[in-house]
Structure formats: structure tokens, C-alpha cells
Amino acid sequence: MSVHNALDVALHAAVADYVAHNPRSQTLCEVAAHVLPGGNTRSVLYHPPFPLTMVRGEGCWLWDADGHVYIDTLGEFTAGLFGHSDKTVRAAVQEALVGGLNLSSHTAREARLGQEIQRRFPSMALMRFTNSGTEANLMALAAATLHTGRHKVMVFDGAYHGGVLSFAGGGSPVNVPHDWLVAPYNDLEYAAALVRRHGADLAAILVEPMLGSGGCIPGTPAFLRGLRDLASDCNALLILDEVMTSRLSFGGRQALLDITPDLTTAGKYLGGGLSFGVFGGRADVMDRFDPRRSDALAHAGTFNNNVLSMAAGHAALSRVLTAEALDALNARGDHLRERLNALFAYEGVALQATGLGSLLTLHATDRPIRNAGDLAGSDLRVKDLLFFDLMARGIFLARRGMMALSLPLGEAECDCVLGAMLEIVELRQALLPQRHAVQLM
Predict the structure, then answer these.
(1) CB hemisphere CA count around 276 (13 angstroms)
(2) Please, which residues have CB within 8 angstroms of residue 13's CB and are 6 or more apart in sequence?
(3) Which residue among 192, 278, 333, 378 sits deepest, i.e. has the most Cβ atoms within 10 Å of its Cβ?
(4) Contact (CB, 8 A) for 72 and 61
């Protein structure tokens, strides 16, 4: 049997085993399909033949409807940085509930959370809250186009800035209709050429300091600093989408690279694990939202300052997420990624883990990955097989191979991930793409 056919057979068997071991999750998905398309209301969570239904989480552990226990390496796609039901965050939410759920008014909580965020991201001279990173990016783009009076926006192939701002594979049909200029990630020359051609009409350059959903592909320092210069040269706004990368240091990746954007968008864990987003930056741009102005820009949202997110976010940032804790988490992530890559190299398989700090994604290629184009030609069946094999060994991750470590996920759990991967690589050795030996002259 050819390797190609053998891989199909192995994947079919792994899927069949998944179905056999998760009947309750399958039933619950079928029930949900009577009211939700495909039983789903959040596309990223669905994968065939059906997704697991989780019933409980504690620390870095998950329990599914069929009684299986998993190490949660996905961490709610980076929003679950504090793990499941951190006691400090939970106490803050319970206290807020006692004081009233919807107060129809300003509270002191939003200012306190804003001060904590500004302490980390001083580039946010002023900010406004939203309910998600998607909303934050939509509002940042609105601010940029209105401030500059221009309409073109540069984005990058493979980028994800929210459900209506997705640029994988050429873009999504549900994207909002801005005048997009799409460039390859990590290609400063291409971006510069677009600026030379369209600079007079360019409102903003919107970029993730590391492609998150696009495969945990870091932007090079030269590329990101070059974009800062390009935006300044044509009087466009540089918007750093740090919805995912803000967790890479106390001040996000902008602090690590000493880049000051005009606007920053963030969210996810900054709300303590509850719904949250934020956009902010230069005072002259954000001041346009000041409702005391006669020409103020409107920005509504019933739950922008909801007491639960405000309470959870402030407790998490002021009492849990110290710089030391965040640095230790990112060091664990770097160590896990390095150990995985060392394992792949030792076993001679063409796999790799990309990313920074506590974020990583598995890929079925050993080629250097600088942008989405470098992933072309890799066999997605290999990633699927790794996914089902890891799940069968109690490692919960995204179908696309993404992991986002949480604070309670320690070295012991990282050892379990590495042990499971070693077992899988040795079992599937003949089915995995092989590294090519370097030819010596």
C-alpha cells in the first residue's frame, strides 16, 4: 500500500475511533442542529465528524460529555489565559453579581479596568471598550478612515481580525466592504510598493504582530518596524491587532519591539475570560469619540461596560496577571515549542511548531514559514491525524493544530504533551512527511 493510501486508512480509522468513543457528544450535536445550523453558533469550534461537547473545566483540565478528561492546551483560542474559574476572578464576578447585573449607567469599574490596560499599553492614551476583538477592529478601522478621510486599508494574506475581517485564502465573503489592499505577510517590499501606489488614499495598515489564526507565524522585527515607517511616511494610521499577541509580554509585542502604533486593538483575556474588546491609541484620534464634542463620533454597545467583564478584567489584571507570571508562562511555551521541534528533528519527520511564547501551531512541513504562501502544498491530512491522535491521548487543541497555554498549565502538563507527541510520531513514523538530509559538499 502506498503511503498516500496508508495515510487515508489511518485517518479513517482514527476518525472512526473518535466517533466510537464520543457517542454523547455526537448526540448533543445532532440535537443542537435542530435549532442551530449544523448545531453550531461559532464556526471555529466545528470540525467533522462532530465537535466534542465539554461539560466542565477546572484549572487547565476539561471534561467532556462522555466522561473523558483532557489537558486544555487550547485555552479558548488565547482568551482562557487564566484557566477555568480562577478563584480570584470568580470571586470578583460573584461580588459584581451581588451589586446588580445591568445598571444602565456609568460605573467606576470601567475606569479602573482602563487604567490597568493603559499601564500595560501606554500607547493607548485613550481607549474605548467593546464586546470582542472583532468589534474593536471594526471600530479602529472606522476611526482611521474618519480621521484620515481616506478609504483604503492594507491588510495581509492569512490575517484574521475577526469574523468579518478574515483574509485567509483571499478573504471571506462575509467580510465588511472596506477598500482592501492585501499584501503577503513579512514582505516589506510588497507593502512598500502598495504604499507608493496608493499612499495618498491609504487610511490604515492593520497588522497582527504575529499571524494568530493564520498559523502562529511571527512578523519579523524588520517587517513590523518597516510598516511603522511606511504608515508614517504617507500619514496613514498603523493599527496593531494585539488581540492575541498582547499576552506575549506585559506590554504586548509592541513593547518587545519598541514599536508605537497609532491605534491598538486587544481583547480576549483582558476581560478576565469574559466577553471583552478594546481599541485605543493617539489622543487626537480617540478624542473624536468624546461625547462632550458637538461633532462626536457615535460608538454604542449595550454591554461595552457590563459589570461582569469590568470586574473580571480588573481582578485578573491587577491581582493575577503579574509581569512575572506572564514571563514564566511565555517561557514555558517557548520551552515546549523548542522541545517539540527537537523531537521532530530527532525523529526525522517534516513537522514543526511555530509561534512565540505561550502560542504555537503545529505544521506538516519543515520548510521555513514566513507567510501563508509557505504553507501551500503541506498535507492537511497529516495535521488531521495528529489532531485525532492527540485528542485520543487526552490533549485538547484546535483542529488546525493551534495551542494557547494558560497560567495553570505547568511543566508537568507540557511533559504530557511532549510524551503524547513522541508516542504518536513513533507510531505514525512511516506515514509522516520525512525530512530531507542536508547534502554536504
Answers:
(1) 31
(2) none
(3) 278
(4) yes
Burial 98-124 (b: 16+ CB within 10 A, else e): eeeeeeeeebebbebbbebbeebbebb
User: 10 Å Cβ neighbour count for 310?
Assistant: 26
Pairing of strands 126-130, 277-281: antiparallel
What is the mean pLDDT, run by run of 10 residues, along the chain of 441 residues? Answer: 88 98 98 98 97 98 98 97 96 96 94 98 98 98 98 98 94 95 98 98 98 98 98 98 98 98 98 97 98 96 97 98 97 98 98 98 97 94 98 98 98 98 97 72 33
Identify the pLDDT of residue 174.
96
Sheet containing 237-241, strands listed edge to edge, beginning at the edge strand earlier in sequence: 126-130, 277-281, 263-267, 237-241, 202-207, 152-156, 179-183
Rounded CA gap, 228 and 281, in Å?
14
Candidates 272, 280, 254; CA nearest to 310 is 272
Cβ atoms of residues 362 and 216 within 8 Å: no
Residue whose C-alpha is closest to residue 213's, from 268, 277, 272, 270: 268
Contact between 113 and 317 (Cβ < 8 Å): yes
**Residue 206 is placed in which grid cell?**
492593520
Structural contact between residues 57 and 71, judged by C-beta atoms closer than 8 angstroms:
no
CA angle, residues 185, 189, 194, in degrees to nearest 5: 85
